[in-house]
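Side project, low priority. Logging it here so it doesn't get lost.
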Amino acid sequence: HYDATGDVGMSYDTYHMGITCTGSANVNATTGIVKLGGINVYRADNAITELTCADIRYGGTPSPQIKATDMSKGVTYTYSQTPGDAGSFKPWSDTNTAGTWYVKAMVNRTLNYTEVISDPVKFTVEKSQLVPEVASLQSKEYDGGTTAVGTLKLTAAAGSHIPTNDDYSINAPDAVTGNFAWTSKDAGTKTVDVTEIALRDSFTTNYELSTSALLGVSCGDAQITNAQIGNVTAVPNRTLTYNKNSQRVGVTTTGTTVDNSPVAFTYAETEEGLETSPQTEVPAFTDAGTYVVHYKASALNHDSVTGTFEVVINNSEITDNDVSVTGYNGVYD
């Protein structure tokens, strides 16, 4: 044949038939092709034998799989949630909501086959999963409770997606909330439990959380720090007078804690001694003089407070009872 067209816009193609003759005893050979006429060849019907589409998560792109007689000029896919409305089928957008969707395939016209459009095929757009993480955590001074203050952030789980149009709102401070609590009330605690984690209501159409609780997580250097002991005083309750014996003065102490726990006092003759050899009583002294005593006030979950006070042992007074004279006789002169 000859004069065939390659234009797929034509509804049919015309093929011309002709003969050539090499000649015989009674017939001369032809010098070219002798046209006998033409025939119109119309395209055959294309056929889609299989169309499937796997489920995806919100923000992803469907990947339909198709088998057809001839796909040499490509396939176009359109999507809709209302399969009975042919006009609702549109190209895919990554912001299409989660739910049930339908895909149609149109196999484009080729040289030898007509275009063909499939019946709608159902697939599901599942919610994308978001993973909550602790974004910030405020340290606090020990108060006897476990209440914590922090914020959460969200990232896409493996296989899930956050479309560009959702980035700003997903990263907003109020996108996700949770109840923060330190895992212990004691100072030095660095981990929290976050429970009742929930997405903002407007996100629940297309997203779901991978978990509703985070247990035993830390964030940077955040922790419960020691509280301060207030109103610390240590005052000797009397002065002493030299009596040849070792003496120990009594001390009146005060100190308040945030949880009303007891304050313990220890004493030493030197600041170093408070660490190496602390005593629960004030050191004893013998000779008259002024002595500096170091003290430390301590309480669980509170910073210690140190200070000093003086112990005074006054000189004793000589009395008649303290003096006697023997072995001396004198003559008036």
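Brief comment: The mean pLDDT is 91.
Revisit when time allows.
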